[in-house]
Amino acid sequence: MYLKLKRLIDIILSLIAMIVLSPIFLIIIIAIKIESKGPVLFKQKRIGLRKTYFNILKFRTMKIDTPKDTPTHLLEDPDQYITKIGKFLRKTSLDELPQIWNIFVGEMSIIGPRPALWNQYDLIAERDKHGANDILPGLTGWAQINGRDELPIEVKAKLDGYYVEKASLWLDIKCFFGTILSVLKSDGVVEGGTGKLIKKNVSTKDD
Predict the structure, then answer these.
(1) 30 Cβ partners below 8 Å, 6+ apart?
(2) Which helix (H) or strand (E) holds 197?
(3) Cβ contacts of residue 68 below 8 Å, gap of 6+?
(4) Is residue 200 included in any domain, yes or no?
(5) Is residue 92 domain-resident?
C-alpha cells in the first residue's frame, strides 16, 4: 500500500522540484558550459528495478576524457578529471539534481538504494541477498545517511536491505532530512582512495 502512495509522492514532489529549481538548473548549465567543452548532462547505465537497466542523469562534473564506467573513488587520481565547478557540484550533491527527471518518469524514487553501476557485480550480488534490487533505486537512501561513499559493500547492501524491510513514510522523511544534514556536513564523500569506512557508529536501525 505504501509503495503506491510513495510513487504518487515522487511524481508530485519531482514536478514541483523541476519548476522551483529551474533557475538553479539554468545557472549550473551556464557554469558548466563556460568552464569546459562537452555536454551539460552525463548519462550512465545503472541498475534499476529488478535489475533492469536505465540511464541515470547527472550534471557533468568531469572532463570528457575521463575513463568510462569507473566509480570516481577507483580512479588513480580523480582530481585530474574533476572540473572546478564539478568539485562544487559534487560537494553539495547538486550534480544529482537531473535525477529529478528519472524520478518523475518512474525510473527512480526520491528515497531508495542508490542505483549501482551496471558493472558493480559485487554490490548487485550483495543486494540480491537483501532484496534491495527489487524496489526502485533512489536519489538518496538509508545507506547514504549512514556513510555514503565510504561504506564497505557488505554494509551498504545490509543497510539497503534494512530500508526494503522497514520502508515507511517516517523512514523516508528521516532519510530525506538526514541527507540534507549529511550534504551540509559533507559526510562520507570519498573522491579517491579505497572508500574505507570512517564513520564509527553505522546503524541498521532507524532510531
Answers:
(1) none
(2) none
(3) none
(4) no
(5) yes
Supply the pTM of this predicted model. 0.82
Establish if 46 belongs to a structural domain: yes
Give the Cα separation of 206 and 197 in Å (integer). 20
DSSP state of 92: H
pLDDT tens, position by position, 38-85: 999 999 999 999 999 999 999 999 988 777 766 666 677 777 889 999
User: What cell numbers appear for 36 in the block?
Assistant: 569546459
Cell numbers describing residue 3 = 509503495
Which structural domain, as residue segments, surrounds residue 41? 2-185
In a domain, 26, yes or no: yes
Q: What's the domain count of the chain?
A: 1
Angstrom CA distances, 159 to 68, 114, 125, 205, stand at: 28, 11, 14, 9
User: pLDDT tens-digit profile of 123-166?
Assistant: 999 999 999 999 999 999 999 898 766 789 999 999 999 999 99
CA-CA distances (angstroms) from residue 183 to 107, 144, 161, 177, 188? Answer: 23, 10, 23, 10, 9
Between CA 97 and CA 139 the distance in angstroms is 9
Length of the chain: 207
